[in-house]
Design a protein that fits this description.
Nitrilase/N-carbamoyl-D-aminoacid amidohydrolase, 19 helices, Rossmann fold, alpha/beta, 659 residues, 2 domains, seven-stranded mixed β-sheet, elongated, 37% helix
Length: 659
C-alpha cells in the first residue's frame, strides 16, 4: 500500500436464480480470484447470494435461510483472506425484508447496509418485497450466525475504516440509491468516506450503459472518491430482463476499469489512489468533511467500524497513466480541447486589447513553436475584434544563433497570416553591448545568451511604444516551471497568452491549427515548424543547423510536464512521482535517466520561482497554472532541501522492478 494505492475489484459470478448454495460456491471462487489478484476490497452484485430476479420467492423462508447459510460459509472462507468482501443478500429483520450488503472481513461480519431507495416503477417491483433502510442505524443480533462479541450495526449511514491504511474509509450504497436526486453516497462522503461501493442489479436496455457509465464517473468526480460498481450478470433470470455485468471502477471522474458486458464470470481490478483523493479534498476548500464521532460517547449519525489489514505490501500497478497528462488521449477530445484553449487564449487577449484601446500588437516571431502559437492566438483575437491583421507587427530579430530554416518559417508564417513583418537584426547592437560591459564575444556563456534575449525584448517594447500596441508574450508554462526564460528578457511582456499552456500541449495546438486551416501553404509551414527542434537559438549554428537544443540541456519536456502535473495537481511526493514516471515511461527512459531529470526539475522549480513571482498577466487555460495571483503562491526563497533529501533516499538501478 505504499504511496497510498489500494487495489479493488468488482466481481460478477455466474449464478443460478434462487440457488444460494450454488451461488455461494461461485462467490467464493471469485473471492479467491480477487485475493490472488492482490485486491484488498472486492464488491459483488446486489442480492447475488440468491439472485436479484427471484420475485415472490423472496417471501419464502427457505430462500432467506439459504442466503444466511451461504453468508456463514463466506464468513468462514474470509478468515484466511486479507480482504474486505461485500456481498448482497435478502435479510429479514423484525418482520421486514431488506435488500442488504454484508460487509465481511477476516471471518467477521462488520455490518449490514440496507438499500435506501426501493424502486417500484417500470420493470422494478422491489416495493412488493423489500422495505427501505431505517432512518437511523441500529445494533442487531443474528443468532443464526453464531455468537457475536458485540452487536452488528444495521443501517445505511455506516463507515468502514482501515486503522493502518490512512485515507481508506468505505461507504456502501445499493443500485437505485445512486440514481436518485440525493444518493446516500453524498452523506457518506461528507462524513469521510473516500471509497464508495455500489452493489447493483441494473438491467440492460439500449443506451443505458452510457448513462450508467456517466453516472458512476460523475458521482466519483462530484464526491472526489473512488467508486466501485458491481453489476448483476448473465445468471439472472431472462424472463423479462437481461443483465450484462457492467462493472465499473472510477476515481474522481476518471474511469479506471470497465468490464466487457455480456461476458461470463467478470472480475475487474484496478488501483484507487487514496493520496490523490486526499490531496483533492484538501485543495478544494469548499469540500467539507466531518470527523466520525466516538462510539463510546454518543450515538453518532455516521459511526465508523474499524478493521486492520494484516499485510500492506506495495500494490502492483495495473492502471494506465498518460505520458502526456495535459493532453487528451483521443483525437476527438484533443481537437475539442485545442479549439477551446485557443478560444480562451484569444478571449483573454481580446479583453486586454479592448481595455487598453489598442489596435496594434507586437510579437517576436522566431520560427519556433511558442511564438507561432502566440501569433496564431493574436490573429484569432484580432478576428474577434474585427481588426485588420495589418495591426499585428511580427518582428524577426536574427542574431548569432538564427538558422535559415527558422528565419524563413517566421517570414512565411507572418506573410500567410496577413501580419506585418519587420526585421530588426540585433548582431551589431549586441556586439556593441558586449564592448560596453567588457564581455568577450567568443565566450558563449550565460551573459552571451541572455544579452540577446534582453536586446530582443528591448526592441519589442520600444516598437510597441511606437505603434501604441501591446507586446504579446510567447513563453509557455513548462518554461516557467523550469525557469527556462531570461529574466527581463523573453520572461517579460505586456500580456502572455501562453503562460498556462505546457510545452507538450503547445505542439497539439499548433497541429490542430495546421489541420483545420484551409490554406495549404500555411499548413505546410506550420508542419515544418512542428518538425523543428525546440531551441532558443542563442548559440551559433553548426553547419547551418541548430546547435542548441533545449531538451539536451534541461531534459525532455514530456518528463518535466509529467513531473509538473503531479507535483502541482496532487502534491505528490518525489518518491511517488518517481514511481509513476518509472511505470509510465518504462522502456522509453531508464530509471537513472528519469531520476536525473527529476532532480533537475525539483532544483530548477524551486530556484526559479522569482521569475514566476513577477509573471505578466495571462489567461489560465487548464487545472494547473503558475500565476502568483492565482494558482501558485510560493516564496521565491523557499528551500528545496526536504524534497532533495527524499530524492537522496531513492536508488535507481535500472534493474527489473515491481511498480
Amino acid at each position: 500500500m505504499k504511496e497510498k494505492f489500494i487495489k479493488v475489484g468488482a466481481a460478477t459470478p455466474q449464478i443460478r436464480v434462487a440457488d444460494p448454495g450454488y451461488n455461494t460456491t461461485q462467490i467464493i471462487k471469485e473471492m479467491k480470484r480477487a485475493d490472488h489478484a492482490g485486491c484488498k476490497l472486492v464488491v459483488f452484485p446486489e442480492l447475488c447470494l440468491t439472485g436479484y430476479t427471484c420475485g415472490d420467492l423472496f417471501l419464502q423462508d427457505s430462500l432467506l435461510q439459504g442466503a444466511l447459510d451461504g453468508l456463514q460459509q463466506i464468513l468462514a472462507i474470509s478468515e484466511d483472506l486479507d480482504m474486505i468482501t461485500l456481498v448482497g443478500l435478502p435479510f429479514l429483520h423484525q418482520n421486514s425484508l431488506y435488500n442488504v450488503a454484508a460487509v465481511i472481513f477476516r471471518g467477521e461480519l462488520l455490518g449490514l447496509v440496507p438499500k435506501t431507495c426501493i424502486p417500484n416503477y417500470s420493470e422494478f417491483y422491489e416495493g412488493r418485497h423489500f422495505s427501505p433502510a431505517p432512518a437511523e442505524w441500529i445494533p442487531i443480533q443474528i443468532p443464526s450466525l453464531g455468537e457475536q462479541s458485540s452487536p452488528i450495526l444495521f443501517g445505511s449511514k455506516i463507515l468502514f475504516s482501515a486503522e493502518n491504511l490512512p485515507g481508506f474509509t468505505l461507504g456502501v450504497e445499493i443500485c437505485e440509491d445512486l440514481w436518485t436526486p440525493a444518493p446516500p453516497s453524498c452523506g457518506l462522503a461528507v462524513h469521510g468516506s473516500t471509497v464508495i461501493a455500489n452493489l447493483s442489479a441494473s438491467d440492460e436496455t439500449t443506451g443505458k450503459d452510457s448513462y450508467r457509465r456517466d453516472l458512476v464517473t460523475g458521482q466519483s468526480a462530484r464526491l472526489i472518491c473512488g467508486y466501485i460498481y458491481a453489476d448483476a450478470g448473465l445468471g439472472e433470470s431472462s424472463t423479462d430482463l437481461v443483465f450484462a455485468g457492467h462493472n465499473l471502477i472510477a476515481e474522481n471522474g476518471s474511469l479506471l476499469m470497465e468490464a466487457e458486458r455480456f461476458a461470463d464470470d467478470q472480475l475487474i481490478c484496478s488501483e484507487i489512489d487514496l493520496g490523490r483523493l486526499a490531496s483533492e479534498r484538501q485543495r478544494i476548500t469548499t469540500y467539507h468533511t466531518e470527523p466520525a464521532s466516538d462510539l463510546t460517547l454518543a450515538k453518532p449519525d455516521y459511526p465508523t467500524i474499524e478493521f486492520r489489514f494484516q499485510d500492506l505490501h506495495q500494490t502492483e500497478l495495473t492502471r494506465t497513466y498518460s505520458r502526456t497528462p495535459f493532453v487528451p488521449h483521443t483525437k476527438e477530445d484533443r481537437d475539442r480541447r485545442c479549439d477551446e484553449i485557443l478560444n480562451i487564449q484569444a478571449m483573454g487577449l481580446r479583453k486586454r486589447l479592448e481595455h487598453t484601446h489598442c489596435d496594434h500588437a507586437v510579437i517576436g516571431i522566431s520560427g519556433g513553436l511558442d511564438s507561432t502559437l502566440a501569433l496564431l492566438v493574436t490573429v484569432k483575437a484580432f478576428d474577434m475584434l474585427g481588426l485588420d491583421h495589418s495591426g499585428i507587427l511580427a518582428v524577426t530579430m536574427p542574431c548569432f544563433g538564427t538558422t535559415d530554416r527558422t528565419y524563413q518559417n517566421a517570414c512565411t508564417l507572418t506573410q500567410k497570416l496577413g501580419a506585418v513583418l519587420q526585421e530588426v537584426p540585433i548582431h551589431e547592437a549586441v556586439t556593441l553591448h558586449f564592448q560596453d560591459i567588457g564581455h568577450d564575444p567568443n565566450n558563449h556563456d550565460i551573459t552571451y545568451e541572455n544579452s540577446q534575449a534582453r536586446q530582443r525584448t528591448l526592441v519589442l517594447m520600444d516598437l510597441a511604444n511606437q505603434n501604441n500596441g501591446l507586446v504579446i508574450g510567447t513563453g509557455d508554462m513548462s518554461e516557467l516551471a523550469l525557469g527556462w526564460a531570461t529574466y527581463n528578457g523573453d520572461h517579460m511582456s505586456m500580456y502572455g497568452v501562453n503562460c498556462s499552456v505546457p510545452k507538450t500541449l503547445v505542439r497539439y495546438l499548433v497541429l490542430y491549427y495546421a489541420e483545420t486551416t484551409p490554406d495549404p501553404a500555411l499548413q505546410k509551414v506550420l508542419l515544418d515548424i512542428l518538425d523543428t527542434p525546440v531551441s532558443p537559438e542563442l548559440l551559433p549554428p553548426k553547419d547551418g543547423k541548430i546547435a542548441q537544443k533545449t531538451e539536451d540541456i534541461v531534459g525532455p519536456y514530456e518528463l518535466h510536464d509529467f513531473f509538473l502535473y503531479y507535483l502541482m495537481r496532487f502534491g505528490y511526493t518525489p518518491t511517488k512521482i518517481f514511481r509513476l514516471a518509472r511505470y509510465t515511461f518504462a522502456g522509453e527512459y531508464s530509471d537513472t535517466t528519469i531520476y536525473h531529470w527529476l532532480r533537475i526539475f525539483y532544483h530548477r522549480f524551486f530556484t526559479q520561482q522569482f521569475k514566476r513571482s513577477c509573471l505578466p498577466d495571462g489567461p489560465k487555460v487548464g487545472s494547473v497554472a503558475l500565476s502568483p495571483r492565482g494558482d501558485w503562491r510560493m516564496p521565491s526563497d523557499a528551500s528545496v532541501d526536504v524534497w532533495m533529501r527524499e530524492l537522496d533516499t531513492l536508488q535507481p538501478d535500472d534493474k527489473s522492478h515491481t511498480v
